[in-house]
Amino acid sequence: KNQVEQSPQSLIILEGKNCTLQCNYTVSPFSNLRWYKQDTGRGPVSLTIMTFSENTKSNGRYTATLDADTKQSSLHITASQLSDSASYICVVTPNTGNQFYFGTGTSLTVIP
Amino acid sequence: NAGVTQTPKFRILKIGQSMTLQCTQDMNHNYMYWYRQDPGMGLKLIYYSVGAGITDKGEVPNGYNVSRSTTEDFPLRLELAAPSQTSVYFCASRPGFPSTDTQYFGPGTRLTVL
Questions:
Q1: Among partner residues A34, A49, A102, which is closest to B42 by beta-carbon distance?
Q2: Do B90 and A43 count as a contact with CB atoms less than 8 A apart?
Q3: Which residues of B touch A105 (CB under 8 A)?
Q4: DSSP single-letter state for residue B83
Q5: pLDDT tens across A28-80, in order?
């Protein structure tokens, strides 16, 4: 069964600290993996996308990594800011069909 | 360029009532999607469309209907609302090519069925 699991479910960190969010998936055959940021009360917004051949992608203070062999991805946030408080969602796209598989997200809270 | 717009933002329905959630995109995207997001859960696909006149069921289509008469609009119809349909509904669109294109999401409609 195609699944996407994220950990931790929630995380609280101090402003300025780094953190890493995890995503494990069983989706096969694999096409690409996206990380989205969803602010409270808003729709998700794309942060990064990685295909099978890419193992790292950066977007400012956000760096995503992908290990297609172990089917794991991580999102590293550097020097966190209060505006990073949001839910971060991992989305995996298979090679076939029009389905996207969404993780349940990690809720990140950055406190001063 | 407004992107993906959804109306209404909030709605309260009584059990058995019907309503239509509106979704419009101005990016000339071929693909459009409707998702629901329940608390603590990932987005679940209700229906999607790959172009005007073409729609298909997603993971959780029961209790909903859609139509796609134009490229821009993709309304979601709820017939005989039930408390289980209380959720936040997101509409999304994407060009459809290449396969690495991004979905753009609307701001969501928060629906409560009492």
A1: A102
A2: yes
A3: 42
A4: G
A5: 888 899 999 999 989 999 999 999 889 999 999 999 999 999 999 999 999 99
